[in-house]
Amino acid sequence: MAEPVAEMCDQLIKAVYVMMDPESNQRFRLEALKFCEEFKEKCPFCVQCGLQLSDQTQNPVIRHFGLQILEHAIKFRWNSMSQEEKVTLKNCAMELLSKGTRPILEEESHIKDALSRIVVEMIKREWPQNWPHMLKEMETLTTMGETQAELVMLILLRLAEDVITFQTLPTQRRRDIQQTLTQNMNGLFSFLLTVLQHSVDHYRKLKPLAAEEAKAKAHCRVGVATLNTLAGYIDWVPMVHITNGNCRLLEVLCLLLSERDLQLEAAECLLIAISRKGKLEDRKPLMVLFDDVAIHYILSAAQSADGAAIGNNSTQADETAGLVEKHYTFLKRLCQVLCAIGNQLCSLVGSAVEVDVPRNLNKYLEAFLSFTTHPSQFLKSSTQITWGTLFRHEVLSKDPVVIQVAMTYLRETRTNIVKTGFPSRNDSPSCEYSRGDFDSDEDFNSFFNSFRAQQGEVVRLACRIVPEEAFLVTSEWLQYQLITPINTGNTTSKIGEGLCSVLSPSAVQWDAMTFYTESVVGQLFKVTEKERLPVEKGIELLQMVLSYDTRDPLILSCILTNMSTLFPFATHQPQLLPQVLTKLFAAITFEVVEDNKAPRTRAVKNVRRHACSAIVKICRDYPEFVLPSFDTLYTHVKKLFSNEMLLTQMEKCALMEALVLISNQFKDHSKQEAFLEELLAPVRTHWLSEEIRSVLWDPVSFLAHIGADQVMSDPCTEDQFGISRSRISFCVYTLMGVVKRARWPSDPQEAFSGGFVTGQTVTGDPIYRNPCSTQVLAILPNLLGLIRTLNSLFSPENMARLSETFVRVHEVMDVEKNLILGLPQPVLDVYDSPVYKTALERMQGFLCTLYDNCFHVLGNLGPSLVQDFYTIDGLSHRIIHSVLSNLDNVPDNRLRPLLRVFMKQLVVSCPQEYYESLLCPLLGPVFAYMLQRLTLKWQIINQRSSHIESEEESAILEETQVTQEMLEEHLVRIVTKELLDLIITSCISRKASEPVSKEEMADNDGEEMATYSSQGVQLSSANSADELTDLGKCLLKHEDIYITLLTIAFTALCWKDTSICQRTASLVCWTLLRQVSGGNLLPEAVTWVYMSVLKGLQIHGQHEGSNATLTQLALLIYENLRPRYMELKGVMTQIPNIQQEALDQFDHKILNPATNKITDKKRRDQFKKLIAGAVGKPLGQQFKKEVHIRNLPSLFKVGKSDTKRDLLESNETAGLTALFGPQQDDV
Asked: What pLDDT does residue 307 have?
């Protein structure tokens, strides 16, 4: 036997060297790999070779391969081994642990890991039933030396990970091992703490001795391994083991925070322990961490690590970079520890367990505040959620200590909110830390925007606690900025001398101060009584802002924001209004260089848009205050409109919206109607002219009118058709603004006296008439014609009419493409450069915006015009022949506004009396068309994803083609979600189910929690919590619409999008099917429905949430329809690996529910086992060889067995006999 083993080992060694040699030929490497894999599968002396190769005299690579062979043998041959072979292998493994490795500091980490895996695999198969003294043997091993102690820690850690975290073994085996671990947890924790104490004591004693450096490092390594093992158990053991002995474990961990080489692992353990959820009374002992000693150790450890990191950053060479990173990582963990302590404090104080506010809360807050003021932006951001929780807390927010710290926080945030610390720069202490946290300036910028939003929320919460102090801090900062000269720094703007760029010191400070002011002043008006408002100071600040003059667009934009923020104070002094409007109107026409022919920069555009938005906001929020100045405002707007090129169409629309908003305060239908008629006269004249009518209704004329059929010789020059396009845009923009803003008075009495009421509904509700109805209805026919024309532009004959300049005009714009694909937008240095656009980009922007705006107008017509809109003769016919025309050629990105902006809004706003005449004729064709379209699209996606390309094919595919395919797939997913949204809005009336508390969820078994949390919606649907809306009932009366909806719902389960599948299965499928579950469905239809659910399981069942949802849906269908459709059982028999006898038993229970009463959970579990063969595996698991771990005799007492064995309740497969009997000896 020895000779063939030695010969085979020689061949294996050669094969391993061939595989690992980078110079090896690929063919030889593949042959060597094939030889090794065949050896593992077929060789009869696999174990003997593995033991010989794993001898410590071999090369580490060979030893690792030998250990892999042993692991493979245990995983896949254990069940076929004899008892003697198992005992031999176990003894050899224990010998390897005790003598088969090199000293702890010399041994390779992958060898230790491989050896620990071997032992854990045996434990998973034999412990505790056949290896009851395993823990005792492990304890004995630790006394043999540091090497063995570390290996034991690795074994215990991997055991916890496999059993608890990853759950890589059958349920019964997992429960047996977990139960035994829990029963022995007192002893196990005592053992771990003893090993930790022993190694730490020896490490501290030997560390100062230079001659004993190696021994000290060995003990340190054991300490690190023990802490890592503790971390694997602390997360799930009962809290009593963590808090035993007056929280001795937590005390030890706090002490270890001062040990440089152990502090990171100790902080990890501490964090896991403090972050535990569960019952509040179990967590009460954690308040020991507010003792002076614990806080002292945490704070001193933070100061020490911070000092080390800073020292290393400035003085150490590159080889110590890892040490710096370790210190910084420790700081992050320590910050998380303090956050977790704060969260526990907020949970316990003021709760039923009656925990008092800690007497040294100020020391904790001092330590916590030190992280909020740290140079690292990441550390600052980590504290924000806890500050928010603290300031929001009903009891703690009233404590004097917290009130005082809220003031400190407000002052410190003035520094934190300033955007500094870009990784590419060196102008701040934060930059060094940012280089470790962020890959690029764009990455940092994205993070900081989110961080600033968090700070804004916390500032608002602090303002609720100390509003007067918050306003004082704000006013000081604003005044300081107003008197401080502009500092452009080293990064001046490219558009003018002395102007700031986005990174200039003044621009950064102004930007931060403006955001801070918005956060504070907005909250101030919400939480402060009117009499206590600092009106005088607010008016003084507003006057200072109004008198501030600048030509810098970035600073001016901040000035406009501050003016808008402080405007509520102006309502106490009306004479300020003209000054405000003058400032805003000046900004609307702002230019850095007058009569400049170059395109405006983004910063200048932002100023102008900002001013327009500010006017709209003032007119929306304070219309009665602005009403006396209406004539002045209107005169100024007309003056601006007299120069057609002075304002963009969007700016004109914003000013018209402002006028309309104020006109709502006329509260006189005739007067407002006359005003709107005057306002819309230019639009109506242009829009209804014969020339424009022919353009809007004819695609050929339209293309010629906008210049899309013309070749542009110079793409950078303004084409002569821009004015024609801008006039069309202006008409639609104006129409949209009027439809959105024109309304009748909200007070019914004022509406009646103002002439806005034209009658009453059947239920007695007033029927209102919008003053813009006459004008809008006159314009509407041409708008519908324009939409029809826009749809027809995508037809092949009209695409052929496009000139070579505009042949790509219907492609998705780059900005839209980046948003769809989730690609980062360029965020820096974009404010300085003029926004040059090619003729193609201008045309793309025009058509895209025009298309969207048309649907915004249509979507708002229902809520705005109400009866005047819904009573239009032949409205459904007009919409079908315009909005729904030529859809075959319309691309997916153009379908989204149709579904989301128009159809969904129409469904939401339509009165019930128009369901039959308007919505049913519209939704029926829309649903039918979208089913046909999406089915074809998803077939293409499914085929594309199932086709695996060769390397040659992949090389041929260019990056642009791959990006295009990704874009098309994303668009299909988006359109599908919009359709699903429309169906749910139309048909499903969702009632909120009772939420489960976090504490209850935390106490649940992990596996059950994941299942039930995702099943909540489906279970409630079975109990009629999800009902049909009135529109849904109306739609379901039409058989063709109902069949279409059912087909969409159940077909969507097979489309490769998990979120679509889960949402459809949980909200739509059963709600629709239940309506006819008691009727006469065709057997073929029932079979198809059930097969669709099983196919969905095959595609999406690998995801736990989808699996639970689809399993519940399948069970509902089977339970409700199986008694009348025996075909469903026939479908079940086609499921792979289903046990016929088990199926017969379950089927009998379904057909005879009265005689077979079982709980819902048991029924679900039984059904889940039946259909397990239908669940698809993820790609990474499809070709993986399955590991079979047999169940051992149960640790729990089993009651009297039933006369008839229930296969559904057995955890073992049919015919499987237990390998180990109770009379067998230990392994």
From this structure: 66
Residue recorded with tokens 């200072």: 544
Residue 1028 pairs in a beta bridge with 988
Q: 170-188 as b/e, with b when 16 or more CB fall inside 10 Å?
A: bebbbbbbeebbeeebeeb
| DSSP state letters, 356-382 | PPPTTHHHHHHHHHHHHTSS-HHHHHH
Quick one: angle between helices 1104-1121 and 1083-1100, nearest 10? 160
User: What is the pTM for the complete model shown?
Assistant: 0.86
- Tabulate helix, strand, coil % of the chain (nearest 5): 70, 0, 25
870 neighbors 914 (Cβ within 8 angstroms): yes
- Which residues, including other chains, have CB under 8 Å from residue 219's CB and lie 6 or more apart? 146, 199, 200, 202, 203, 206
Gap between the Cα atoms of 393 and 390, Å rounded: 5
User: pLDDT tens across 824-860, in order?
Assistant: 666 555 555 556 678 888 899 999 999 999 999 999 9
> Would you say 2 and 9 are in contact if contact means Cβ atoms under 8 Å apart?
no
Phi and psi (nearest 5°) for 808? Answer: -105, 20
* Neighbour-count burial of 66, counting CB atoms closer than 10 A to its CB (0-12 exposed, 13-18 middle, 19+ buried): buried
How many whole angstroms from its chain centre is CA 733? 34
In sign, the C-alpha dihedral spanning 375, 376, 381, 387 is negative
Q: Say how many CA atoms lie within 13 Å of 722 toward its Cβ.
A: 18
Determine the Cα angle at 189 with ends 185 and 194, to 5°. 150
Cis bond before residue 423 (omega within 30° of 0): no
Residues 6+ apart with CB under 8 A from 241: 185, 186, 189, 249
Task: Provide the β-strand partners of residue 988.
Answer: 1028
Tell me the C-alpha distance between 971 and 841, whole Å.
21
The sign of the CA dihedral 1047, 1048, 1049, 1054 is positive
Neighbours of 1 (CB within 10 A): 8
Rounded to whole angstroms, the Cα distance separating 127 from 106 reads: 31
Largest CA distance in the chain: 110
CB count within 10 Å of CB 1091 equals 16
Which stretches of the chain drop beneath a pLDDT of 50? Answer: 312-323, 716-717, 949-952, 955-956, 992-1026, 1198-1207, 1209-1227
**Whole-number pLDDT of residue 993:** 36
Q: What is the DSSP letter of 106?
A: T
Residue 999 confidence (pLDDT) = 38
| Nearest residue to 1199 (alpha-carbon basis) of 1190, 1185, 1189, 1209 | 1209
* Rounded CA separation 723/706 (Å): 9
Coil, helix or strand at residue 592: coil
Cα–Cα dist 68/40, whole Å: 9
Burial profile 976-986: b = 16 or more Cβ within 10 angstroms, e = fewer: bbbbbebbbbb
First and final CA of the chain: distance in angstroms?
25
Residue 1038 and residue 986: Cα distance in Å, rounded? 14
Alpha-carbon distance values, 412 to 127, 398, 867 (Å): 57, 20, 56
**Cβ-count burial 281-294 (b if 16+ within 10 Å, e if not):** ebbbbbbebbbeeb
- Helix (H) or strand (E) holding 831, with range, is none
- Distance between CA atoms of 134 and 128, rounded to whole angstroms? 8
Residue 405 in contact with residue 368, Cβ under 8 Å? no
Cα–Cα distance for residue pair 884/906, rounded to 1 Å = 14
CA distances from 714 to 706, 805, 813 (A): 17, 10, 21
Instruction: Please state, in angstroms and as integers, the Cα–Cα distance from residue 2 to each residue in 9, 52, 53, 59, 85, following that order.
Output: 10, 10, 13, 21, 17
Are the C-beta atoms of residues 1226 and 131 closer than 8 Å to each other?
A: yes
